[in-house]
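Q: Give me a backbone?
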Amino acid sequence: MRKKLMPETIDALPPAVNKRYEVHGQLLPGLHLRVSATGGKVFCVSKRINGRMKRITIGTWPILTLHDAREKARSLLRSIELGRYVEKAPHEEEQRMMTLGEVVPRQVAS
């Protein structure tokens, strides 16, 4: 479904019946809003990267405003077009903070 995304229209979107659905914005190609059965709404960008279609989650409505989602989507789409977008490899884990049990022995040994 394609609509002009506005805060009023986003608020008025009903929850999905069985399966989540997407509402594509008219102003910025690639930006869309996914609506789940629970009524949750998430901004995403869809773009072909290295020949494969990718969906990148931007943020959750209403925590992320429509204006912020559009800015973030523009920035993301621009970096993809310029070849600067770097995907995180699936095997790469996020760096985690060390626990106190890991830090203390290191400090005592030093």
